[in-house]
Amino acid sequence: MKLKADDINAYLKAVTKKVEEEKNYLSELDRKLGDGDHGVTMSIGFTAVDKKMDELKDEQKIKPILTSAGMSFLDAVGSSVGPLYASGLLKAGNSVGDKEELSDEDIVTLWSSFVDGVEHRSGAKVGDKTILDTLIPFRDSLTDSTDTTDVLEQFKEAVEAGKKGMEETEQMQSSIGRSSRLGERSIGTKDPGATSAYLIIQAFLDYMQSV
């Protein structure tokens, strides 16, 4: 599979649409654990990304697409999720250098770098009931899938691993952030950050399947 800058642009615009569709659900989850604005926050961030993608519709290199998306998200969102996604997108952009086209291997590297960036900024670990409960299983599956040369199948398996991690947050007790104050009362609700992260990786799989 080969993806170009306009594919990454179109994918990020598809994420905006997906986030808008699930905005209320994400905020509903967050009302049970935090201040109830996660869906709105993600919507604000990706609406800014969407506008930036319109400005970059003729950009041929992939790095500026990703780094501009990261900075636009960060500028629009002041909460903790802003630096997380910005760090991921900037690291993903740096991973592709000056390329105008991504190979299968580049796609894996891009996503692995994205998760590395989020993980480094977050400081959380699997089991803390955060975004990383989706992203780390996703990354580990993606980079460990050496038994297939089909990047689409590789990505499907990775998204399934991320989905499993997301679903497991429902039975976790929050260890980090505002929701950690709830103690055992945080058990029984999926983490909104893990849920929105799943939507983002699922949207990329959907895009790959459409091209």
Structure characterization notes:
This protein is an all-alpha fold. The protein is 70% helix and 2% strand. The protein has helices at residues 5-33, 38-55, 62-76, 81-96, 104-122, 132-144, 151-168, 192-210; strands at residues 3-4, 101-102. The longest helix is centred in the first third of the chain and has 29 residues, at 5-33. The chain is globular and about 50 Å long. 50% of the residues are buried.
Q: Can you give the helix content as a percent range?
A: 55-70%
Number of strands: 2
Q: Superfamily at the CATH H level? A: DhaL domain
Mean pLDDT: 93
Quick description:
Pathway: Polyol metabolism; glycerol degradation. One of its GO terms (molecular function) is glycerone kinase activity. Helix content is 70%, strand content 2%.
Keywords:
mainly alpha, phosphoenolpyruvate-glycerone phosphotransferase activity, DhaL_dom_sf, phosphoenolpyruvate--glycerone phosphotransferase, EC 2.7.1.121, kinase, Serine Threonine Protein Phosphatase 5, Tetratricopeptide repeat, two-stranded antiparallel ribbon, 211 residues, 2% strand, globular
Secondary structure elements and pairings:
Blueprint: E1 3-4, H1 5-33, H2 38-55, H3 62-76, H4 81-96, E2 101-102, H5 104-122, H6 132-144, H7 151-168, H8 192-210
Antiparallel strand pairs: 1-2
Helix pairs in contact: 1-2, 1-3, 1-8, 2-3, 3-4, 4-5, 5-6, 6-7, 6-8, 7-8
